[in-house]
Write a structure and sequence with these properties.
This protein is of the alpha/beta class and 269 residues long. The protein has eight helices and eight strands, in the order βαβαβαβαβαβααββα. It has helices spanning 16-25, 44-49, 67-81, 109-125, 161-182, 201-206, 214-226, 250-264; strands at 7-10, 31-36, 56-61, 85-90, 129-138, 189-194, 234-236, 239-241. The chain has an eight-stranded mixed β-sheet, sandwiched between helices. α1 crosses α7, α3 runs parallel beside α4 (109-125) and α5 (161-182) packs across α8 (250-264). The longest helix is centred in the middle third of the chain and has 22 residues, at 161-182.
Length: 269
C-alpha cells in the first residue's frame, strides 16, 4: 500500500483523470512518476501544477504507438524509482479513431495504445514492484457494449470507433483478472475500474453526453488504489461490481493473453 515514502506511476497524466490523480497523489506519497506522449516542454504547465505537493515528480515521455518506446519507458521508470514501486495506475488511453489506423508495430491503434502498450509496460514493471503493490487499470463500462472476437481482434472487418474502444477496455479487464490469477499469493493486487462518466476530451470524442468533473474520476481511481480490494476486482464509479459476462470468461482471458504475449514477445524480459 502507498505511504509518504512510496513511489507511484501514473500513465496518461498530462490531462484529464490522470493529471487530477497525480495531483492528488503528490500530497500523499514521496515520488510520482508521470507519463505522457508529449515532449516535456509542451506539458510544463501541467507538470507545474504537480509541484503543489511535497512529492518529487518525474516525467517520462512515451508514445504508446511504439512498443519499443514503451519497453524503454518501463526501464526508465524502474531506474527513476530507484527502489520498489508501490503502485501503477494505468490510465493512458485514446478514443477509437474515426477510421481504422495501424501503428508502426502493425496493430490497430486503439488496441495497441489502450491495451497492448499497457500490458507491455506492466509486465516489464512487475519485477520492480513492491511486495504489496497495487496495479490499477482503467477500463470502462463500455466493455459491456461489445464482445471480443479474437479471430478479428485487430478489427480488419467492420471497423467502428466505439467498438474499437470498448473492446480495448474489455481486454483490459480480462488482462487484469488473468494477471491476478498469475500473481496469486504473491501480494500484488491488480484491479480494474470504470471511473464513471467523466467530462474529458476522450469521452466527448466518441459520445454526445455530458459527464462529471475529473475530480470524481480521480476520486474513484484513488479509492481503487487505496481501499479494500481483492486481486481481480472490478469497480464501477466507486462500487465493487461484477464486470460483463465475457470479462469473466477465463478461457477467453487465456486466449487473449496468448495473443498479447505473442505480439509483445520481442519486448518482454
Amino acid at each position: 500500500m502507498i505511504s509518504e515514502e512510496s513511489t507511484v506511476i501514473v500513465t496518461g497524466a498530462t490531462g484529464g483523470i490522470g493529471l487530477q490523480t497525480a495531483r492528488e497523489l503528490v500530497g500523499r506519497v514521496g515520488h510520482v512518476i508521470v507519463h505522457g506522449p508529449e515532449p516535456e516542454t509542451k506539458v510544463r504547465p501541467a507538470l507545474h501544477v504537480l509541484t503543489e505537493g511535497a512529492a518529487a515528480v518525474s516525467y517520462v515521455q512515451c508514445d504508446f504507438e511504439s512498443l519499443a518506446d514503451v519497453a524503454e519507458a518501463a526501464d526508465t521508470m524502474t531506474s527513476l524509482a530507484g527502489g520498489p514501486i508501490a503502485a501503477v495506475v494505468n490510465n493512458a488511453g485514446v478514443p477509437g479513431s474515426m477510421v481504422r489506423q495501424i501503428t508502426q508495430d502493425k496493430h490497430e491503434r486503439t488496441l495497441q495504445v489502450n491495451f497492448l502498450a499497457m500490458v507491455l509496460l506492466t509486465e516489464r514493471l512487475l519485477p520492480a514492484l513492491a511486495d504489496d503493490a497495487r496495479i490499477v487499470n482503467l477500463a470502462s463500462a463500455t466493455h459491456e457494449m461489445t464482445d471480443l472476437d479474437l479471430p478479428d481482434i485487430e478489427l480488419e472487418r467492420a471497423y467502428d470507433a466505439v467498438r474499437a474502444y470498448a473492446r480495448s477496455k474489455l481486454a483490459i479487464i480480462l488482462y487484469t483478472r488473468s494477471l491476478a490469477d498469475r500473481l496469486a499469493g504473491q501480494g500484488v493486487t491488480p484491479v480494474s475500474l470504470s471511473p464513471g462518466v467523466i467530462s474529458t476530451p476522450l469521452l466527448h470524442a466518441m459520445f454526445s453526453v455530458g459527464g462529471v468533473s475529473v475530480r470524481r474520476g480521480a476520486d474513484n481511481v484513488l479509492a481503487a488504489l487505496t481501499g479494500p480490494a481483492r486481486p481481480g476486482d472490478y469497480f464501477d464509479d466507486g462500487k465493487l461490481v461484477q464486470p460483463g459476462a465475457q470479462a469473466r470468461d477465463p478461457r477467453l482471458g487465456r486466449d487473449l493473453m496468448d495473443f498479447a504475449l505473442d505480439a509483445l514477445r520481442p519486448y518482454l524480459p
